[in-house]
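Weekly modeling sync, notes
Attendees: S.R. (lead), two postdocs, one rotation student

Agenda item 3: backlog of single-chain predictions. S.R. asked that every request posted to the team notebook include the full sequence so nobody has to chase files. The rotation student volunteered to paste the first one in as an example of the format we agreed on. Action items at the bottom.

Example entry:
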Amino acid sequence: MDILGVVTNFRDLAREPKNRPVIGQDAGSLGSLILCLDSEPAVVEIAVEALYYLSLCEDNLEPMKQSLGLTDSLRAIVRSPSSAPQLSQWAHAILSTFDMAGKPELLATMQTPVHNGFFKGKINKMARTIVLQIDGLNDLYSRNALEQRLLQVKGVVSFTFDMKTARITIRVRDWLQMEVLCDAVADTGMAARQVVRDDDGQEVMLSFGASPSKFNKENAPMPDYLDEHEMLDPEADRKAVVHSGSENQNGGWFSAIGGYLSRNLYW
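Predicted structure, as returned to the notebook:
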């Protein structure tokens, strides 16, 4: 089996939560995946995806943070203009998780889908609702990257996703500026457009920093809350990665294929 095939196996195994602690805390396996970050693009993409799955296990965060070269390699991927958007989003998501290590309350929020329950209960008179159309929000990885970045924005009260329409509804404090939200989205490699309604009740997309023709942004009504019928389907946000079937594996097996990668990636 070639290196690409071995890394693909790692990725498939890492998709299964029960395998993540074994892989992430095995020095040979983790080190081999890090070596793959200096390989050909196809290998790099699958290795980063595998590392993303491993980062979803809280017990793996410290070993991953302490692994020589991992953080620097991920930062290089995020900053590189040649990195594919999907690859940058995975790398950014891992780095964001590292930043939250040691803060279990934030990690729990980052790795738990955000549901409509956030919008119920006592009404916050100091908050307003913004709806953004996100270019690039098309899978679990992009959603997690955006979710983790928004958790870092001061003034964001809550948010919920509609993956079918690639939109996110955000409750923010009334002093939070749109520029801050759009910058946060841009940090993940995606782009945001604000969804508002014109005088005829038709939806209009406002690009950041521009005013579309036939619409005056300053006069656009900004409702404090969405109507109930516009709230998202609770089931729409409960998507998860399809787990690939795999038999129970042990640390020795992981170390063995990790050794294979190490031998073939050192030249």
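Discussion: group reviewed the output briefly. Strands lie at 127-135, 156-162, 167-173, 191-197, 203-207.
Action items: rotation student to repeat for the remaining queue; S.R. to check formatting next week.
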